[in-house]
Amino acid sequence: MGSSVSTKGRSKQAAPPRNRVHTETTASDGCIDVPPGRKSPRPDKRTSEPAVVVEQVANSGEKNAVENDTQGCSVQPPKSSSSNESVSGKRLTPRKKGSPPRRQGPSKEDLTMSLELCTDNLPPTDSLEALEKASKRIRKICTFLQSRGNVPSNLLKRNLHYIADVLEIVATDDASTDSRKSKVHQETKNDPSKDRRFIDEDDELSEVEPDAVPMEVRDWLASTFTRSASVTKSGEKEKKTFRSIVQAVRAANLVDRLYRRMSTSAVTYPPTVMKLFKSLDDWSFDVFALNEATNGQALRYVTYEIMMRYDLLAKFKIGVGTLFNFLEALEVGYSKYQNPYHNLVHGADVTQTMHSILFQTGLVQWLTDVEIFAVVFSAAIHDFEHTGETNNFHVMSRTETALVYNDRAVQENHHISAAFRLMTDDNLNIVYNMSKDDYKDFRTLVIDMVLATDMSYHFAQVKQMKSLLSCPDNIDKAKALSLVLHTADISHPAKNWTLHEHWTELLMEEFFRQGDKEQELGLPFSPLCDRKTTMVASSQIGFIDFIVQPSFEIMSDMLDKVVAPISPRGSLANQSSATISEKVEAEGSPQNGDQSEEPFEFKVDRVWDGHLTGNKVKWKEQSTKDQAEKEAREKAAQKAKEDAEKRDQSPLDDKAEEKKDAENPPKITANGTVSPGNAVDLKVKPSTSPENDDQVSTKEEAVGTASPEHAEKRTTEEDKPGKIESITVKSVTKRKESGV
């Protein structure tokens, strides 16, 4: 036993382990590095002596270190046995011939794990790719832990050391000093309440977007850098506060976002579309010009561009192909009934109007990503498969849609149901990667917003918002966004005159088509649906005064209350501090007894007020002209009616005269003349005195003046050719005087 190693008489302090089994990995990260001079940890068959001598560990800590170093390796050291093996410094007996092998070869899963967790080919810790590689490596470790339950300690240590080195480089702060740290540490030790650093770091961590880094990395960062005060490394380099890590993560997230935006931007816009999109944020955006430039595809272009500007494709992992499939199906549904007004152009217009309100007023800062997505989605689908008729028409005509939805918000319920039914197809499902909680919130908000576009809820909605504005409590987001969508749906009277006039023509044509259908079905005309009686200008004035303008006023008040807390003092943000100070100096300080200036009240830019006022003035001018033309038409129609009645009455009078002449044939008078049957039949007798002549003449004149109509009829009969000339009383008198 001369080759045995004894520990008797040897001091523990002077006996460090010389031949400890090392677990340094090679390129495969799963094999054991054998110390120099040793080929294998197997026993030597020739001498039947063990090839590896394990000296007794000086303390339990070193023993545990040996066990941890060897745990999880593909090649395990021989297990100790009470019968023939010992770790007390004696030699280990060799394995007997025919006994089972003491170690097994690495499995396929072990080899896969070793290759995927290999640290040899990782990029340098100070490179740009290191942070991304560290994130992916932690994900892989978590995957193996979940599937296998353990990861070899050597692989785990190497990867964690690499990740720690990467984060140390990111977190290096050259501005930190030992004196400041010692001072902060001393103050914290004396008064723990003063230690606000870790609270601030937690706040910064909460600002990191959930998708910026994996959850495992985020948890590890929090536990490493926000809950331990002693995170410094031995040496002169100091670590930065967690703020720098957040900034680094944000920078990496921004680069990743830009990369994904470039990689997902598969749409190439024509030059005319690019030019139009420069004014996409404007209030009076010309959606008709865009529809012409995109060959009738305004809805898909507007929706895609707005979703890209809010980065919704990257945040909700929406594929470009899936999105365009869905938008194409939307356009097909909007064009199903060939409506003049409720078509894909109207859907694109409302979507752009919602974007303009969110962007121009700052309302977007009040919303989460899910709520922004719900707003854009609701605007795009709010009139999907609209039939071109009102809800009342469906109820009165008892359509299938009215029966399905029980006469309640018939069209609006169908828009929502049909749009969500599209996404049951995986090729159209743009919410496939949304979490269950986000999808629940998303769908609830979409339903509330689209149902609010039913005009029968208008006055109740306005009244409810007025009551909410009078309360000091916060405004419910669903109600606020529902009002904004409803207002955007009826916003064309608040656009410039060219757009508003065009939209009005299309809307009235759709109303008149409904009136034609109602006339065919024998239903009464709905308001503004009769082509013959509807005054367009007057109807638009009433629509603006009682519907549109009150909606915009209450929406503006709501935006003032919502945006004011998150806005940098409203319009003061547009003024420099020098301008404000100069104004105060010019006006001078208030003297004694003068009231101080009232506090500033935030107001959103009401760009729509000017258009509403101007359009209403033009409609009033048009209404005056229409009224004058209507009166002229009524007079002309009345005159034409009277002339027609006269023309119809004249042949009747002629027939009546002919009938009377037939009943009263002409008669022969006493003096031998012929008189018509209805003429006065006088028996003229010879007169012997002039008095009798005067009496006869007076009587005849009296008879002639007593019936002027009869005299006119006689005159008329005289003028007609082929009629017998009537003998009047005067002609008889003249003939008597002449002695005939």
Overview of the molecule:
The chain starts with 59 loop residues before the first helix and ends with a helix. Residues 1-92, 173-178, 194-205, 224-240, 569-597, 679-690, 696-718 and 720-730 have low confidence and may be disordered. It is built from 28 helices and two strands. It is mostly helical and 740 residues long. The chain has a two-stranded antiparallel ribbon. The chain has helices spanning 60-70, 108-116, 129-148, 153-170, 178-190, 197-207, 215-225, 242-264, 271-277, 287-293, 298-309, 312-315, 320-334, 344-361, 369-381, 391-397, 400-404, 410-422, 436-451, 458-469, 477-489, 497-521, 536-563, 577-587, 607-663, 690-706, 708-719, 729-738; strands at 667-668, 674-675.
What coarse outline follows from CA principal-axis ratios?
Answer: elongated
**What is the mean pLDDT?**
73
| Rg over C-alpha atoms, rounded to the nearest angstrom | 50 Å
Helix content: 55-70%
Q: Which stretches are low in confidence, meaning pLDDT under 50 for 5 or more residues running?
A: 1-92, 173-178, 194-205, 224-240, 569-597, 679-690, 696-718, 720-730
Q: How many DSSP H or I helices?
A: 28
Major beta sheet summary: 2 strands, antiparallel
Region (Disordered): 1-111, 174-205, 570-600, 615-740
EC number: 3.1.4.-
Biased composition (Basic and acidic residues): 177-199, 618-664, 709-723
Catalytic activity: 3',5'-cyclic AMP + H2O = AMP + H(+); 3',5'-cyclic GMP + H2O = GMP + H(+); a nucleoside 3',5'-cyclic phosphate + H2O = a nucleoside 5'-phosphate + H(+)
